[in-house]
Each structure stands twice: as C-alpha cells, then as structure tokens.
Design a protein that fits this description.
single chain, 412 residues, alpha+beta, Immunoglobulin-like, 5-stranded mixed beta sheet, 28% helix, elongated
Length: 412
C-alpha cells in the first residue's frame, strides 16, 4: 500500500500483518526481523530511523513500522521509498523480500502548504481562499496587482482594533473578543491532543511489572526440577557403591566380570581406610568402564557382603556396619559439589519427550522451556533449542469450556 507523500523530516507509521502459510491466521513475525527502505531503483538499503514493533499492542500478527524520514537518516526529497522485510520468518518460513508498504518524500505535488494540514481552496470565481484573504482577480478579467496587495497590507497595519480594512479586494473585519477566545481554545485542544498521542505511543512496562531477575528464574527452575525426581539409595546400588562404600584397590578392574571376581570376603578384608581417596577415584574409573561394558546397573553383580552401600558381614576382625570417616565424608561431598556445580547438561535433541526420563532429561526439558524461545499460537505451543529449532510441541485446543494441551510430540 502507498501511504502518501510526506515532507523531509516527517515521521510516518505503517502497519502490516503476517499470516501463517498453512492456516492464514495472523502469526508473529520471528527470526530477529529487520525492515529496510529501498529508495527508488537503488539497491542501497536504509535501516536508520526505522523502528519495528512486532505484535503491536499485543495483537498477534499485527506489526508497526515507524520511519523518521530525516536527511540525517539518509532520506531525500523527490524520492519514492519501498519498505521491505530483509530479515524474518513466519512459522519457520523465510519472508525476506516481502514488501509491506511505500511512501514518497515531496515527490507527488508541486504545491505543498508550508504548514502541515493547512488547505488551499480555489472557488468558482478562481479565487484562492487562504484563511480570510482572497488572492486573485477582483473582478471580471481584472487581476489584483502587487501594488493593490501592498496598499491593503499597509492599511491593515495602520489599524489598531480591526483585523482588516476596506481596500482593493479586502473587506474590513472588526476585532472580536469571542474570536480571540475561540483561537485560544483551539490551541489548547491541540496541545492536549499532542500530549495524549505521546502518552499512548510511549513505551512502558507490561502491566507495570518489572522484568524477572536471573535469580528468580533459576530458583523457579530448581524448584520444578526438585519436584520431578527422587533418589532411593536403597535401590540405586551403583550410586551407593560409588559414593559410600570404602572399596579399595582390590576393586580395580575393566569390566563387570572383573569387579565380581574380586568382591570376596578375603579380598575385601585387604581394604585400607588410609587409601580411601585413591580407592574412590579408582571406583569411579571402574564404574565408567562397567557402564560402557554392560549398559545396565550392577544390582545383580554385587555380593551379599555389600548391603545398602555398607559392609554388613564379618570382614576379618571387623563386624557390622563400617561408618564413614570425616575424610571419607569430605571426599563424597567434594564429588557431589563437582557434579552439581561443574558438570554440564547437553540440550535435548528433536523428538518426543519420553514418559520415563532421566533426571537430567527432565531438568533440561524444563530449563529449555524457561530459557529458550517459546512460541504459542492458536494451534501449538512450541519449545525451541538454542539455535531456534523446534524440538517438541503440544497441540492446543479450546472449545469455550475447556482449554487443553495435548501430549508433547516431536517438532517442528
């Protein structure tokens, strides 16, 4: 659409709508969109002075482009401009090259008023009516001369109370107090209208709410993650062995068979608490090798001598449970801190989230939903990865009574 011929230095607002290619419904313009102005036949894009507001007034698919057409921003008179999307997507499809509107700067009319919105009326007699003064012929076939106009102006200046005096082509108009009050009232109304326009178009916080802090978002993430899993030491034998059992160098091995062969009372009796830090490191190495070798837990391969991660049977001169020493507890705590504060979690791949996720999978899905881009329209709620790809989504429905979100499926 052509949005008119404006002056150099004016500001113009142009609105346009983007729609889904599949449904035709108004859809958000995404992909870090950019609007550029092309002057005439030039391939030099102008982006200065252009502000794009996506989903204007919180209306999905409605967007506003404000152009401040000053010479400092690169605009010139007697020029036509086309506004084009040079970066952006709709529903994951590129819309680069879409023309959203056009305008010109002092290129359509040779006659433009010096004051915006002021009109010039030419009546049936050929007189140009500019406010209260007519400029043109005073009679049939008679033009008003420059001398006549200057004489009228001099006569007007000589008056004190009258707006005009009788003269060549002019009629005296007495000064009127009511007119003066009316002019002042119109000026006041214009000022109020200007202030309302500034207030309505000014940026403000949504609903007066301040943006959330990083700490509040992370606290919410941890709260949800903590509620999504539990750990049972009695059933998680691998964690129990690695974190609490003081297994010594006798446990060194490269696979599950080697581990089972050395877990005998005779070999366990050789354990030395003084070597615990080294032993813990060795067990961690063996555990990684066991998981690669078997792909399973070690519940069926641990002798009865180990119950709940402790040595409960007689081993040499030791009888009953063997409590952890202060050093052992410190080592276990250091391992836990390392896992929580140092180890990272990879993003989930595109696919259907499993109904029985690991703790890491559940935590990462919640984190991606909070941290990455989240698109919601009339049909779907979509979760993206850091690169902007949809990894999974939910179908949405609302029959006016029940709002429903279907089970997640793979993206896009």
């Amino acid at each position: 659409m052509f949005h008119g011929d404006i002056r150099l230095g004016d500001t113009i607002d142009i609105k346009f709508t983007t729609r889904s290619f599949s449904t035709g419904a108004p859809t958000t313009l995404a992909g870090t969109p950019v609007i550029s102005a092309y002057p005439g036949n030039s391939v030099t894009q102008i982006t200065a002075g252009i502000t794009l507001t996506v989903d204007f007034d919180a209306v999905t698919g409605l967007h506003n482009v404000r152009v401040v057409a000053t010479s400092g921003n690169g605009y010139a008179t007697a020029t036509n401009y086309a506004l084009v999307i040079t970066t952006g997507t709709v529903g994951g499809v590129s819309v680069v090259g879409e023309v959203i509107g056009s305008f010109s700067i002092e290129a359509r009319s040779a006659l433009m008023p010096a004051t915006a919105a002021r009109t010039l009326v030419v009546d049936a007699a050929g007189l140009a009516d500019a406010n209260a003064v007519k400029v043109g012929p005073t009679g049939a076939g008679t033009a008003q001369t420059a001398g006549d106009i200057m004489a009228d102006i001099a006569a007007i200046e000589a008056q004190t109370d009258d707006i005009g005096v009788a003269g060549a082509g002019l009629t005296a108009v007495p000064w009127n107090a009511a007119w003066d009050a009316e002019v002042q009232s119109e000026a006041d109304d214009a000022l109020v209208a200007q202030r309302l326009d500034e207030l309505l178009n000014a940026d403000s916080d949504i609903d007066g709410l301040a943006p959330p802090t990083v700490g509040s978002v992370f606290h919410e993430l941890l709260t949800k993650a903590a509620a999504s899993f539990t750990y049972d030491q009695a059933t998680d034998s691998l964690e129990a062995i690695r974190d609490t059992a003081p297994l010594g160098t006798a446990m060194r091995g490269t696979d599950s068979a080697a581990l089972a062969s050395v877990c005998t009372e005779a070999r366990l009796a050789e354990l030395d608490a003084a070597n615990l830090p080294t032993d813990v490191a060795n067990v961690k190495t063996d555990t990684a090798a066991i998981l690669v070798d078997t792909g399973t837990t070690l519940d069926g391969r641990i002798p009865a001598a180990l119950v709940g991660g402790r040595m409960d049977s007689d081993i040499g001169a030791k009888t009953g449970n063997v409590a952890l020493s202060a050093q052992e507890k410190a080592d276990v705590n250091a391992e836990v801190v390392d896992a929580v504060n140092v180890d990272t979690i990879a993003e989930l791949a595109q696919g259907i989230p499993t109904a029985t996720p690991t703790m890491r999978q559940a935590l990462m899905l919640q984190y991606m939903a909070l941290r990455d881009k989240l698109d919601v329209d009339a049909n779907f709620k979509e979760i993206h990865n850091d690169a902007g790809t949809v990894i999974c989504k939910k179908a949405l429905s609302d029959d006016g009574t029940t709002y429903s979100e279907a089970e997640m499926v793979a993206g896009p």
